[in-house]
């Protein structure tokens, strides 16, 4: 006697899979469910869509009001974080701009001192060519002094 093949048992949808968003039960219409977010484990397998008869139940009404109150309290707490985030973000932007300005001034100081000292060093070799030597020495000294004064004034 041969055994008849058994029909495959209905498989439960994997709750972590993308197919868990809609569930079809034999003889019913597909219902959309809310994706799991790690809330209460006791409510993990409960159907999430409510109809009018469910909403008439005082227990469901209390649970919905409790959940609404909890969500509003959490929203109030998070609003404080939003305000502090915007303040910190604004402060970070201001400090970033100050740092860019400081870096630019440091570069100008280094160039001024470097070119000024190079001109002062070059001036003695050009001293015999007339006025070129003293002019280059004076311009170099002005560059060095300007860079040093600029740095002192910034501090």
Description:
The chain is built from three helices and two strands, in the order ββααα. The chain has a domain at 49-154. Helix content is 59%, strand content 3%. Strands 1-2 form a two-stranded antiparallel sheet. It is an all-alpha fold and 155 residues long. Helix 2 (58-122) runs antiparallel to helix 3 (132-154).
In short:
The protein has 155 residues and is mainly alpha-helical. 59% of the residues lie in helices and 3% in strands.
Percent of residues in helices comes to: 55-70%
Structural class: mainly alpha
Distance N to C terminus: 101 Å
Q: Which assembly state applies to the chains in this document?
A: single chain
Strand content: under 5%
Q: Give the ordered list of helices and strands.
A: EEHHH
Mean pLDDT: 77
Q: Describe the global form.
A: rod-shaped
Compute the number of strand runs: 2
Helix segment count? 3
Largest sheet: 2 strands, antiparallel
| Spatial order of strands in the largest sheet | 1-2
- Computed CA radius of gyration, to the nearest angstrom: 39 Å
Low-confidence stretches: 12-33
